[in-house]
Amino acid sequence: MSDLIALAEDFNKRVEGLRVCVIGETIIDEFVEVKYEGQSMKSFCPVFRYAENGFGRVEQSGGAAAVAGHLTDFAAKVDLITNTNREIVKTRLIDRDDHKKHVEINRIESERFGEIEINPADYDVVIVADFGHGFCDKLKVNGKFHYMSQTNSNNFGFNRMSKWKAYPKKSVCLDLREASLQLNHKADFGSQENIKELYNYELGADKLFLTLGRKGSLFYDGNRYTEQPAFTSEVVDTIGAGDTFYAFACLAAELDFHKVTVIPALAAGLSCTWLCNAESVTKEKLLQYADRFV
Predict the structure, then answer these.
(1) Which residues 6+ apart lie within 8 Å of 97 measured at CB?
(2) What is the pTM of this model?
(3) Residues 239, 240, 242, 248: is their CA dihedral positive or negative?
(4) Strand partners, 127
């Protein structure tokens, strides 16, 4: 048995009794498969046609629902506190053969979201997945929790970690763009000094995860510094990989798992083998994916 498979089996066993709560926006992801036909000569806009023999239109539950879905097979209990209607819908016109997204159309109705209060003592793990569309704006958490805030085209520059600086957190997760926004300058996170600067700047968290895309991820807790390469084999789509990484990073951080970034990186790599959130990570799939790297 390889060390990686043994590590995955150990992780699976240690998290199976955890009670988890995930709070955040559910995003309905719609995908329409198209082919680019060229430029309209009259209106100067791109023209697409539905792809022949393609999948047509598919709909998936993303955002916090995807985070919770990835953990369902691992933890004893996973509660999801989220919007229940179609307040947030993102429609993407994609070319599957060229791995290209041509157009994204968003519908966001955040004014419907009310106040939410959570007591982390009711759970072993509380994850706040703030996608910046308003669901978490009136959230009150009475204790430490794990936190991720996402920067996208709708909230660029506004959904920063600093807005939660008054809340003590067990861990936070940022990508490179979110980390630079947090520091108010574009930083080279190949330097441990910049990681320390980020850790000490308005995060209010015990542990920091920084995702680097194809370069992997970093972890820092004030003492330990860990660089983690990405696990990649077949890459179909990277949308949602960062959310998958953090879902498992929260569990690993909660247990103080000795190789805190390995399983999150493995799960993130696995989630790149299907379109966006078409599937969820399971114990069996995780072990099968680990076997590819033996």
Answers:
(1) none
(2) 0.91
(3) negative
(4) 22, 146
Does residue 92 fall inside a structural domain? no
Q: Reduce the DSSP state of residue 141 to 3 states and report it.
A: strand
Query: Per the domain annotation, does 52 fall within a domain?
Result: no
Question: Lowest-pLDDT range, 17-26, 29-38, 95-104, 231-240?
Answer: 95-104
Alpha-carbon distance 160 to 34, whole Å?
Answer: 34
What is the reported pLDDT for 153?
Answer: 64
Assigned domain for 34 exists:
no
| Domain count within the chain | 1
Backbone dihedral angles phi then psi of residue 6, each to the nearest 5 degrees: -60, -40
What is the extent of the structural domain holding 119?
3-25+114-291
CB contact at 8 A, 58 and 277: no
The mean pLDDT of 65-73, rounded to a whole number, is 97
List 190's β-bridge partners, or say none.
Answer: none
Residue 254 tokens, joined:
């909660």
The answer to whether residue 13 is domain-embedded is yes
